[in-house]
Please model this.
Amino acid sequence: MKIPKITVWRVIFAVIMLSGLYATYLRIFYGLGGSTNLSDQFPWGIWIAFDVMCGVGLAAGGFTLVAIVHIFRIEKYHPVLRPAILTAFLGYSLVVVGLLFDLGRPDRLWHPLVMWNPHSVMFEVAWCVTLYSTVLFLEFLPVVFEKFGLHKPLEWIHRISVPLMILGVLLSTLHQSSLGTLFLIVPEKLYPLWYTPILPLLFYVSAIAVGLAMTIFESWHSSRAFGRALELPLLASLGRVLAVVMSVYLWIRFLDLSHRHVFPLLSQNRIETWLFALEIVLMVVPTILLYQSSIRLRPGRLYACAVMVVFGFIANRLNVGTTGLEAGSGVHYVPRWSEVAVTFSIVAAGFVIFRMIAQYFPIFEAQEETHSPELPKTNEEVPVTVG
Amino acid sequence: MPRAILYDSTLCIGCKACESGCAERWGLPYNDKIAAEEKISAHKLTAVETHGERFSRRLCMNCVQPACASVCPVGALQKTVLGPVTYDPDKCMGCRYCMQACPFQVPSYEWSSRLPRMRKCDMCSERQSAGKTTACAEACPVGATKNGDRDELLAEARQRIAAKPDQYYGKIYGEREVGGTSVFYLSAVPFEQIGLRLNVPMEPLPETTWRVLELVPDIVSTGSVLLGGIWWITNRRAEVAKKEGPRS
Model:
């Protein structure tokens, strides 16, 4: 048995996990009151706004790439499909962990499956997330079967793969948008910069964008972690798609704000104005940059753009889920340290588990076989043809 | 026939007998310290508020179309025919969406409990079905809180305003708010001066989410056909390309 080497990252990881462990103890023995700054006026904090709303969104690469590769058949993106599915599967598992912390009665997590209320958005989200996690598990299974050379089950799972993938895309479409629908019930609480009847559409489009950004993010990190070559032409062309999706998103956002005549709000010196500005800048800057091939073709810059999109997305979800609700709820909410500790622990665990799985299972190797040889290696993307 | 509560703030003397009656009905502790708390919480489901020399009362509005019941993923909250919005703690999983959704910020949570429940006034639902009045109305010594048939109480409220127009602010809070509630307020001054919210929408809130949710079957059916169709075309193209071999 080898003693693991002590590195800065490992120390940081240990500190985060230990603080998370203590926060977990507080959550279990002292309830939500002893571990969060939530109140009757502010019942949802970062465990919902980050762990659930961002968690589900950041895992959106799974369905986006499945649709691109298997339904639209743009096969060149195949090498990044598996990491995206793994992220999604891990992401959803961690969302469930986050929910176990946030629910007042985590032992009743299964209740919505038995006790129905089809009028509730939360009910729909619960069902979609449960079903989609199952789909992701099945989509990930071939990796396990391949690793252990189980050909029979591999064949069997390939036979149901098309309906499975279509189901996965549909379920994702439903619940990614439904996370926005959740907030349609609070027109008097959510600040007008964020409250709009088209929240579901905005949540859906931004989930697609952040799914692509996360794919670039993972590839960059895994190439550094495992010392493998970065599939740059491929990621660069993904960056191009990301720029287009972000442009569509930002344009819808602009039209919505202008149709609702809320631009005058931006002249007010309030916390909402500044956090809205932060969110928009984090989305506009990478979008503009990604239109330049000189940015897309440099790994560091492409990565920086992806990170900005991810942070812009997180800012948006936190604004809708916390900041935008403060004034309407009449209270100021700052998460307690234990809330932050649990959230960081979940993220850190996500990174480590991803790395471990990628090390032991054929996640990034698949590209060697499927990498189409006709793909130009030096030049940027071949023209994308749908179909 | 739905029932309701009429609270006339011009009659209220702030004696808090309603609070103690309510605590007794729920089996909650009540003492001077709790009486001094001027807000509703998990251990105090109604509260008398002081606004200068005027009084106001907070309790669950038991909305005609309650947002809380519509958002509850497990159906723990139910709107009953008689008016009360009831809560089944055995179903509740503690997602607290009801609290987020309530435009009046009524539902409270047992934050420090290890097995927490949501708490709120349910208009003494078992008394309503037995034809009795609520504990708060029963306790009120001056008739500021009255429990009865919703239509009759609404008519009576209008009558009171018509009889003494100079003593009342000429509106009934709860008549149109969020599509109507089961609690009506009468006041001598504009409602915001006795702490009531004026920013609540006049339409029922459940419609805001239902407008989107009702599209789910359409999205699923259209989506399956669209995605299936696209796959069918792209798959065919791939098969043809395979047969013809690579073209340059």
In short: The longest helix of chain B spans residues 216-244. Chain B has two domains: 3-208, 215-244. Chain B touches chain A through 60 residues (CB under 8 Å). Chain B has a mean pLDDT of 94.
